[in-house]
Write a structure and sequence with these properties.
Number of strands: 2
Order of helices and strands: HEEHHHHHHHHHHHHHHHHHHHH
Strand order of the largest sheet: 1-2
Distance between the termini: 23 Å
Mean pLDDT: 85
Shape: globular
Oligomer: single chain
């Protein structure tokens, strides 16, 4: 399938029908092969990234000194946070590479880096064996993964936005978090299975390595799936303009300052939604609220399945009624419910299920159209770099620190402050979304 066929629909992906006026009409069919290839690779990226947070409660005292459990967890979460600060660098470097040399090439690079980092973590020596070399090697692996994910998010978002017909960009965009949610679901189910079949001693000594081995193997599958992806027609049309662009990062600020601030504004809430629900609440519920680890994993798994199921319907809804109504509802709802919702976190499976289902159900309203919104902000020659740099700076600052912030506040006896922090971010995002213009159905520039 050529890039043009992917963008416009090939003969095999359309069928004839009759319009109301009697003229022939072409009904669009999704290019599933292309979407699955892009999304499967993205799933591997997010699986590897999520596994670190999901299993951190088991390997923290293996990689760091087990004599001080509190410092071991702080060191593990700090490494998690530090890796986020390499995401902007990856977003900039790999984003620029994508704008110059293509979305496909950059996505092959990112999945290779992520899978390599996962395998490196799987075979890490423990602190007892290697001393401080163990956490240093962990940090190196996480830096590679951070740079990889920084490039992956921007390129996958740009690619999905660019291959989509204007009136179906929400539907295409929904595949990004269908893959992301599926990857997180796999990580959660694996965590639940291992928590219920292995002893704590087995999980702490060797069991935590298994999901990282799985991540490395999935990376090979992702590389195979992406090898035949068609390049974006938008990239092909604008690659000479990208090569002629000097100082691309400063150009985004100079020529598109409003779009940069809008991206930062709604990403602030988006990243806190994601990393609160998928990362921070798992160790917080177990360590600080006395929840059973198995209950947390199962509640998260059920809620994640709901999250995946809602992506396409919400993406299609945005194609019909527009982006802004959904975005405004998402931000307003989070501002209202997040603090009351946090009071339910504790040793009750039913309450945990409510927390995760409501939190992720509301987040699906935004995530289903996130690539569409981001790809519509910048022109093609700046798209991957513009998203990669500013999105990842925001994620590094607020998302990467979420598990560390909630852990520190919990240790200080002020865990509820974290949820007020998310509520304030929701208010900021709501005000930002008010400044967005409706872009549903518009051609990308």
């Amino acid at each position: 399938m050529s890039a043009k066929e992917t963008l416009e629909g090939s003969p095999g992906s359309a069928r004839s029908a009759t319009a109301p006026d009697g003229s022939p009409e072409i009904k669009h069919r999704l290019p599933y092969r292309t979407l699955i290839a892009a999304s499967a690779g993205n799933a591997v990226e997010w699986y590897d990234w999520t596994v670190y947070a999901t299993f951190s409660i088991y390997f923290a005292t293996q990689i760091f000194d087990e004599k001080n459990v509190t410092l071991a967890f702080i060191g593990t979460f700090a490494t998690y946070a530090l890796a986020f600060f390499f995401r902007p660098l990856g977003g900039y470097l790999i984003g620029r590479y994508a704008d110059l040399h293509g979305r496909k090439n950059s996505m092959m690079l990112t999945i290779g880096l992520m899978a390599g980092g996962s395998m490196m973590i799987a075979i890490l020596p423990t602190f007892a064996v290697a001393g401080w070399l163990a956490p240093i090697l962990l940090l190196i692996a996480r830096v590679a993964q951070g740079m990889s994910l920084g490039g992956e998010v921007s390129n996958a978002s740009a690619y999905l936005g660019e291959i989509a017909p204007p009136k179906r960009r929400g539907r295409y965009s929904s595949f990004f978090y269908i893959s992301t949610g599926s990857a997180v679901l796999l990580a959660s189910l694996l965590g639940a299975l291992m928590a219920n079949t292995l002893s704590d001693d087995a999980l702490n000594t060797w069991g935590w390595r298994v999901p990282f081995v799985v991540g490395g193997l999935l990376g090979l599958i992702g590389l195979w799936l992406r090898r035949d992806m068609a390049e974006s027609a938008h990239f092909e049309a604008k690659k000479e303009a990208a090569k002629a662009t000097k100082g691309p990062l400063m150009r985004t600020v100079r020529e598109h300052p409003k779009q940069v601030m809008q991206l930062i504004g709604f990403t602030l809430l988006s990243t806190l939604c994601y990393y609160t629900m998928f990362s921070a609440l798992t160790p917080f519920a177990v360590k600080s609220r006395g929840a059973d680890a198995g209950d947390v994993f199962w509640a998260l798994s059920i809620a994640t399945a709901l999250f995946v199921a809602l992506q396409y319907p919400f993406g299609a809804l945005s194609d019909r009624f527009g982006r802004k109504p959904q975005l405004l509802f998402w931000a307003a709802a989070y501002a209202i419910v997040i603090v009351p919702l946090s009071t339910l976190i504790g040793p009750s499976f039913g309450k945990l299920l409510v927390v995760f289902c409501v939190g992720l159900g509301l987040y699906a309203i935004f995530s289903s159209l996130a690539p569409a919104i981001m790809s519509e902000l910048f022109p093609t020659e700046l798209r991957a770099l513009g998203i990669g740099a500013w999105y990842n700076i925001t994620v590094a600052t607020f998302g990467g620190t979420a598990p560390l912030v909630i852990d520190l506040l919990s240790n200080a006896g002020h865990a509820n402050w974290f949820f007020w922090y998310v509520a304030i971010a929701a208010v900021i995002a709501f005000c930002t979304i008010l400044t967005l213009r409706e872009t549903n159905g518009e051609e990308l520039t």
